[in-house]
Design brief:
By secondary structure, the chain is an alpha+beta fold. The protein has 7 helices and 12 strands. It folds into 2 domains: 142 residues, N-terminal domain of MutM-like DNA repair proteins (Alpha-Beta Barrel); 137 residues, Orthogonal Bundle (Helicase, Ruva Protein, domain 3), CATH 1.10.8. Strands 1-8-9-6-7 form a 5-stranded antiparallel beta sheet. The protein is globular. Bound molecules: zinc ion (ZN).
Length: 297
């Protein structure tokens, strides 16, 4: 599933090629993928010029030179590709089918022809992706209704903000608390595993049980893992497993492989219904246990 780093890198690519372009046609083939909660319709962006592409959690926010605003969520399997003819100018999201696959094909559900000969395609093999049309003034309210938590890459995401988000969760595993978008917005399965591994935290530790030192470390590592992915390339897991020779991701997908820090065989458990890979040695004990690294030094 496209996670925050994938959405952010895609946002940057799209911004580079479509800001300033005008929408000539807007077509989404599956009515269930269009969400129009107010009076505006998808056709209201026809003729509009892209002014900016923003992001909130895993939503793209396409702003135009008119009030109609398009939000796009790729959910599990959506991808966005900008082409001029056969030439791909920008692409991102779920990597299946390959970004250079001829378009459209049977899983292509969105087509936006732009001026200057560009087309923005949306392909989604599972059709969970959504196109949401809103008035600009309703965007903040839309996100407020979704109770999205703090963005991990903005200045408001402080150690205190993380502590406040986790404090109510006395019984909930830290992994589950971090996956909950109302606590921290935009973290998905892969990057939560990476942040917990880098922080030496067991995924089943109770969210509210972290010490101030552990919270500070987790805060740093969440940002570090996301920034690494945005700058150096996002996590790739062909067939759900990492290439054993790759050094990223460092935990997720490495089940049954040696821990990159200590050589212990990485373990896999289910947390909140999601496959969770961790090192039983580096990431110590679960809910009531102390992290062994706290005792070192
Ligand atoms: Zn280890």
């Amino acid at each position: 599933m496209p996670e925050l780093p994938e959405v952010e890198t895609t946002r940057r690519e799209l911004e580079r090629v479509i800001v300033g372009r005008r929408v000539v046609t807007a077509y989404v083939g599956k009515p269930k993928m269009i969400v129009e909660p107010g009076s505006l319709r998808l056709t209201d962006i026809v003729g509009a010029r892209f002014q900016a592409i923003g992001r909130r959690a895993k939503y793209f926010i396409f702003s135009f030179d008119r009030p109609a605003t398009l939000l796009v969520h790729l959910k599990l399997s959506g991808q966005l590709v900008v082409r001029r003819g056969d030439q791909t100018l920008a692409a991102g999201g779920h990597p299946v089918p390959r970004f250079d696959t001829p378009l459209p094909h049977r899983a292509t559900h969105g087509r936006f022809d732009l001026d200057d000969g560009l087309t923005l395609w949306m392909t989604d093999i599972r059709q969970f992706g959504r196109f949401i049309i809103l008035d600009r003034s309703d965007v903040d309210g839309y996100f407020a209704d979704r109770r999205l938590g703090v963005e991990p890459l903005v200045s408001e995401f402080t150690v205190d903000a993380l502590a406040q988000a986790l404090a109510p969760h006395r019984m909930l595993p830290i992994k589950a608390a971090l996956l909950d978008q109302t606590n921290v917005a935009g973290l998905g399965n892969i990057y939560v595993d990476e942040a917990l591994f880098a922080s030496r935290l067991h995924p089943l530790r109770a969210a509210a049980s972290l010490t101030p030192t552990e919270l500070a470390t987790l805060h740093t590592e969440i940002r570090s893992v996301l920034s690494y992915a945005i700058q150096n390339g996002v996590a790739e897991l062909p067939a759900g497993k990492v290439d054993p020779d790759s050094n990223f991701p460092r935990a997720h997908g490495r089940f049954s492989l040696p821990c990159l820090f200590c050589g212990t065989t990485m373990a896999r458990i289910q947390v909140a219904g999601r496959s969770t890979d961790y090192c039983p040695t580096c990431q110590g004990q679960s809910s009531t246990g102390k992290n062994p690294h706290e005792r070192v030094g």
